[in-house]
Amino acid sequence: MADFIAAVLMSAGLFFLLVGAIGLVRLPDFYTRLHAASLGDTLGLTLFLVGLMVHEGVTLTSFKMLIIELFMLLASPTATHVLIRAAYQVGLKPWTREEG
User: Fold this and answer.
1) What average pLDDT is seen over the chain?
2) With bands split at pLDDT 50, 70 and 90, how would you rate the model's confidence at 94?
3) CA–CA separation, 34 and 48 (whole Å)
4) φ, ψ for residue 90 (rounded to 5)?
5) Are 36 and 20 in contact (CB under 8 A)?
6) Which of 6, 16, 59, 60 could form a disulfide with 44 if both were Cys (CB 3.0 to 4.6 A apart)?
7) Whole-angstrom distance, CA of residue 1 vs CA of residue 5
8) What is the DSSP string of 21-48?
9) In the chain, pLDDT over 70 holds for what percent of residues?
10) Rounded CA gap, 19 and 41, in Å?
11) How far apart are CA 16 and CA 43, in angstroms?
């Protein structure tokens, strides 16, 4: 049963990583692309690592994956916020429908 739950979590994680990658290519401007990439990375990696932890069981390896996950949950949204704030401060305008 644990292997099935792990497979579902890892598949969901890969799905969100794929959707984030597609959003990175298809969306119109820097802000929306970065938003898609950040959400895809954070949610996709979270689900994937939780699936790996379920598959591995309670071991030192699972603890290391938990530490990696906690770091990613702090670093990814923070880095995205800093990049978007810097882009806005230097004058990069968000895409609007009137611009085409």
Assistant:
1) 92
2) confident
3) 20
4) -85, 0
5) yes
6) 16
7) 6
8) HHHHHHSSSHHHHHHHHHHHHHHHHHHH
9) 98
10) 10
11) 7
In Å, how far from its chain's centre is CA 76? 7
Report pLDDT for 100.
54
Cα separation of 13 and 69, whole Å?
13
Neighbour tally for 45: CB within 10 Å: 19
Diameter over CA atoms, the chain: 55
Q: How far is CA 12 from CA 46, 55, 96, 97, in A?
A: 10, 15, 32, 32
Residue 44 in contact with residue 16, Cβ under 8 Å?
yes
Q: Hunting for tokens 């799905």 — which residue is that?
A: 15
Query: Which amino acid is residue 70, in one-letter code?
Result: L
How many Å separate Cα 89 from the centre of its chain? 24
Give phi and psi for 79, each to the nearest 5. Answer: -65, -40
